[in-house]
């Protein structure tokens, strides 16, 4: 694609400004099953997204076929699209803005295919021989993902980002007395020879085995610790709360809460797209706006809403560099990038000792369905274990926890110290709550 | 090509003489389109959204905001295989999604509706945008007066249409060969056995003309079929793709689907629903002292290995002494697929289907869920009001 030619043509056709966003995703995926390579998928996709402002209205166009032969047709389609838009919202193609670039410190070493196959084979064997109650390894997988992004526009902006990540995933099933339980985990692997397979296998198998013999619980309000994995999933599902898009539209539970106390004073939430511990860092958002570290919630007070250029203009403020898309073909939305709850001092064991009697939730399911975005109410299937005398006792499954996220985050007794960065870009430590509504029998 | 050399590198080189002659398979399109969206102006398409939005806004003074989306997709696929098969399909679908937001004092609620079909824009002649807008507004208004939902085990009436998501999640996924072939499903090895109450018969039918989850052929080039999954409570077939079929020693049922070329096809659902029974709807309520009427379901998920599922109730009512008492909010239903199918004790006669996007390892694909209203004798309801 001759990008200069496209931009020049668009301006000649009457566009006030024009942007070309290109995204290259290269993926290699191996799955292993019963001692053999089960599937192998390799893909290489270049997505091109065009945005242009014509008569003050924004047109979007996305394609995988960005040959120059398409140019005239595409630009004229975009013109027609802009003319059909009736929204009065102010729209933007950004001016370049200077920013010092952060260099990713992670170093992923590209393995040979045989090295990957040996790793997967070893993990499968180790899981199967871990305990006689292990009945199957449904999934052992290796993925290599490289993404490159480049944005140029008619205002002279030209930025690029590149990232690489390698991940191993495994899932195992265990059975005792006809009851089946499972567990899965994934881990970023910088160098296969340094990877601790034993620890990875132990975590997956122990988690599944401990779920055996679980029973439900009597409905009621319990003191609850939501552990690191479950709390990270939950915060991820509720991170939409900080979106300036929903706030500017007036349909967020935080619509009139800027500057007010929304969570317990023990909670501080940071969004840092350049966080060195995270496996995904971005110097720019998908509009080319430089990213930076900021406190979204400070000591329980809602300090800053995340914004892209358009939502910022609606709220009379500046973009926070959170104008990200869900994929190259999507419109620019608002999303957190490396968002976390600042950890406290106590380990999970110390939190359990402090709670004495109560429940630890270590698994939540149905997050895409069990949340009402307008009210912040949720009711979610979860599982975990009881704590008696500060120690883990019986496993619990088929229960729900329900409530309102804002109310729950006011009932924080203690924030744990065990924050960890995995593959998700939203994460949290274990948190002890004074009470959560649990439904079971 | 680097991709081919990657492949050789990963699976090893086999020395073989290869000769393939492709022969195109021709067939009659079972899902013809009358109004191709590509021939309709942007303004006319935007008008559909305007009509839906206006209807929702005018439904009640308390509706403060309305969002509407129109989706039109045309997907052309062609499959050629080393067995000499060459076959193609053009799939067209359309969907309108409306969300309405209601407000009374500090209380803000929402409602939504998102019907669609494997049709062109002629779909909106039968399903008018006004109807969709009014439905979203109705739900948003009902939820303004909803009270916290009680918790615990109770009988639940799950209404028709999107209520079928219970069968989709709790049973459908566990009948996909993807899990069954690896013994990773609660229903593996259960063909010919009773897995549901005798009043339950269910199908997965990818051939319904113009339905959201229909196709002429699956993504492996096999013709779509009507699969009788459960007959009078007995498991009669799984949904099978080619690879897993080979593993299981069974034929493909034409169930190999994928979101796009970027995914590998695997066994997936199409239009999956419980068949109508003969109990009139009103009779489902008889004899229930305290229970839940789940009128409109949200989404859900299932773990096919353990059979554990959850799903959200977007519009629900408490039943007291056989009558609807008041609307409740914040409820989820959880359970195990094995138990719930056995606990379906009454099936009414008002079958309807609704549209959804189903996510799994081969990506996100359009599927219909459906059922007549059913009574589940006991299910765990997760709410916030601990009584």
Question: How would you describe the overall organization of this protein?
Answer:
The complex is a heterodimer of chains A (441) and B (387). By secondary structure, chain A is an alpha+beta fold. Chain A is built from 9 helices and 18 strands. Chain A has helices spanning 3-12, 71-84, 113-128, 197-211, 228-238, 244-248, 309-314, 348-355, 405-408; strands at residues 17-33, 36-54, 57-63, 134-153, 158-176, 179-188, 220-226, 269-271, 294-298, 301-302, 339-341, 358-365, 371-372, 377-388, 391-404, 412-415, 426-427, 431-439. In chain A, strand 4 (134-153) and strand 5 (158-176) form a beta hairpin. The termini of chain A are far apart. The model of chain A has no long low-confidence stretch (mean pLDDT 94). Chain B has 387 residues and is of the alpha+beta class. Chain B has 8 helices and 21 strands. Chain B is globular and about 75 Å long. At the A-B interface, strand 1, strand 2, helix 2, strand 4 and strand 6 of A face helix 1, helix 2, strand 4, strand 14 and strand 15 of B.
């Amino acid at each position: 694609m001759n990008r200069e030619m496209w931009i020049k043509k668009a301006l000649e056709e009457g566009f006030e400004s024009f942007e070309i966003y290109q995204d290259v995703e290269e993926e290699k995926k191996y799955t292993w099953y019963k001692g053999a390579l089960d599937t192998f998928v390799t893909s290489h996709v270049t997505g091109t997204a065009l945005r242009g402002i014509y008569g003050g209205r924004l047109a979007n166009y996305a394609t995988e076929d960005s040959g120059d032969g398409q140019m005239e047709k595409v630009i004229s389609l975009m013109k027609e699209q802009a003319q059909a838009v009736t929204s009065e919202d102010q729209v933007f193609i950004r001016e370049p803005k200077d920013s010092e670039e952060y260099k990713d410190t992670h170093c992923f070493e590209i393995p040979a295919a045989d090295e990957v196959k040996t790793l997967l084979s070893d993990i499968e064997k180790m899981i199967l021989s871990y305990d006689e109650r292990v009945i199957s390894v449904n999934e052992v997988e290796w993925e290599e993902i490289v993404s490159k992004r480049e944005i140029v526009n008619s205002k002279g902006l030209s930025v690029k980002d590149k990232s690489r990540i390698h991940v191993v995933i495994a899932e195992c099933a265990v059975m005792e007395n006809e009851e089946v339980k499972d567990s899965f985990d994934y881990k970023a692997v910088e160098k296969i020879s340094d990877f601790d397979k034993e620890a990875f296998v132990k975590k997956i198998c122990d988690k599944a085995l401990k779920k055996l013999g679980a029973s439900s619980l009597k409905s009621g309000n319990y003191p609850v610790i939501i552990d690191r994995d479950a709390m990270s999933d939950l915060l991820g599902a509720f991170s939409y709360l900080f979106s300036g898009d929903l706030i500017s539209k007036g349909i967020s539970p935080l619509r009139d809460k800027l500057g007010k106390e929304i969570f317990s004073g023990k909670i501080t939430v940071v969004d840092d797209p350049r966080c060195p511990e995270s496996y995904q860092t971005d110097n720019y958002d998908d509009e080319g706006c430089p990213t930076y570290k900021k406190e979204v919630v400070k000591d329980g007070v809602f300090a800053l809403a995340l914004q892209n250029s358009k939502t910022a203009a609606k709220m009379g403020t500046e973009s926070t560099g959170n104008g990200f898309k869900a994929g190259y073909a999507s419109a620019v939305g608002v999303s957190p990038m490396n968002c976390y709850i600042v950890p406290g001092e106590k380990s999970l064991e110390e939190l359990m000792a402090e709670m004495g009697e109560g429940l630890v939730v270590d698994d939540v399911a149905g997050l895409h369905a069990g949340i009402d975005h307008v009210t912040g109410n949720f009711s979610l299937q979860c599982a975990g274990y009881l704590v008696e005398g500060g120690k883990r006792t019986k496993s619990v499954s088929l229960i729900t926890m329900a409530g309102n996220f804002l109310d729950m985050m006011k009932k924080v007794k203690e924030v744990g110290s065990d924050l960890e960065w995995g593959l998700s870009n939203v994460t949290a430590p274990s948190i002890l709550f004074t009470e959560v509504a649990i439904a079971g029998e | 090509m680097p991709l081919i050399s990657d492949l050789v590198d990963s699976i090893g080189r086999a020395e073989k003489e290869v000769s393939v002659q492709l022969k195109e398979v021709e067939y009659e399109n079972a899902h013809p389109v009358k109004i191709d969206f590509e021939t309709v102006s942007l303004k006319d398409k935007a008008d559909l959204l305007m009509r839906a939005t206006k209807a929702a806004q005018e439904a009640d003074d308390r509706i403060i905001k309305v969002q509407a989306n129109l989706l039109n997709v045309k997907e052309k696929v062609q499959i050629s295989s080393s067995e000499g098969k060459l076959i193609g399909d053009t799939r067209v679908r359309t969907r309108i999604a409306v969300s309405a937001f209601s407000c009374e004092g500090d209380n803000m609620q929402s409602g939504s509706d998102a019907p669609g079909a494997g049709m062109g824009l002629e779909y909106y002649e039968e399903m008018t945008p006004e109807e969709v807008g009014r439905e979203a507004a109705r739900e948003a208004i009902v939820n303004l007066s909803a009270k916290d939902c009680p918790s615990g085990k109770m009988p639940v009436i799950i209404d028709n249409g999107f209520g079928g998501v219970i069968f989709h999640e709790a049973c459908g996924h566990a009948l996909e060969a993807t899990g069954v072939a690896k013994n990773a499903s609660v229903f593996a090895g259960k063909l010919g056995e009773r897995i549901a109450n005798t009043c339950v018969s269910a199908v997965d039918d990818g051939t319904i003309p113009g339905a959201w989850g229909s196709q002429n052929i699956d993504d492996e080039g096999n013709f779509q079929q009507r699969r009788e999954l459960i007959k009078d409570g007995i498991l009669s077939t799984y949904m099978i793709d080619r690879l897993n079929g080979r593993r299981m020693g069974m034929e493909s049922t034409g169930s190999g689907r994928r979101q796009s070329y970027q995914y590998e096809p695997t066994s997936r659902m199409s239009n999956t629903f419980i068949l109508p029974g003969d109990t009139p709807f009103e009779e489902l309520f008889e004899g229930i002292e305290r229970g839940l009427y789940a009128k409109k379901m949200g989404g859900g998920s299932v773990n096919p290995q353990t059979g554990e599922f959850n799903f959200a109730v977007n519009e629900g009512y408490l039943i007291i002494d056989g009558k609807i008492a008041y609307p409740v909010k914040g409820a989820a239903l959880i359970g195990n697929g094995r138990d719930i199918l056995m606990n379906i004790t009454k099936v009414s006669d008002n079958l309807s289907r609704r549209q959804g996007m189903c996510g799994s390892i081969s990506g996100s694909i359009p599927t219909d869920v459906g059922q007549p209203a059913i009574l589940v004798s006991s299910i765990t309801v997760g709410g916030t009001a601990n009584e």
